[in-house]
Amino acid sequence: MNHGSDVRVMAGGQSLMAMLNMRLTQPKILLDISGIPELNYQTESSNYLSFGAGVTQAQALNNARVVNEVPLLGQALPYVGHMQTRNRGTICGSICHADPSSEIPLVLATLGGEIVVRSETGQRVIPIQDFQIGLMTSARRPDELVVSARFPVARPEQRFSFTEIARRHGDFAIVAIASCCDGKTTRIGVGGVADTPAVREWPRLEPDQIDDALNELAWDLGGYDDIHASARYRRELIRKLGRDQIERIQNDQD
Q1: What is the CATH number of domain 159-252?
Q2: Are 118 and 126 a contacting pair, CB within 8 Å?
Q3: How do residues 180-192 score in pLDDT, each as one tens digit?
């Protein structure tokens, strides 16, 4: 990585190739790491399921451990693009791209996962909330390579839910919602509304508290108008989808 910002790393290329076609980035060197077997691994520890930088979204989706150990990711992956793009696109590549509408970074943020980066000088483990610092912008330094993403393993008492609204299946989400509840706290992540995934955590919400909590969240995020939806519509989706999810996962624990 001695070339620094002059080089762009490609694992699957599903995001980078589109940016190259539109001349949004013009690196002097394009480095393809997809053929490095040492980066294609899925390993489980007591706390995390780790995906190497070469693991494709299809490989993760077909891994039974994902459904059992990280069910929120298992629910989200079918929403990611299409079968053809999932065969090439990688878990870590989606996180590195840092698109605010992407499902995988939203899941990692909701779960409180970590990114592992490495350079010639050593290795860093970066909490996801510190990794995504802006619109398609991360805390990775030019001399660093993302080598893995760590997703926390679900605990028995936790329940999860993921859904999104898009114009068509596989399109970028207008709003995506990921939720997690352990009986004592309720945690919700929202994608597609701000520059980075927005995550909030509350003590377990009573039925008469859900609407107020989600309304406050919707107005805090604000949303934006574009050709796909208005800010008002995005705020309403946060309220509606969020309530449906919170009620469902909290009721599953009763």
Answers
A1: 3.30.390.50
A2: no
A3: 999 999 999 999 9
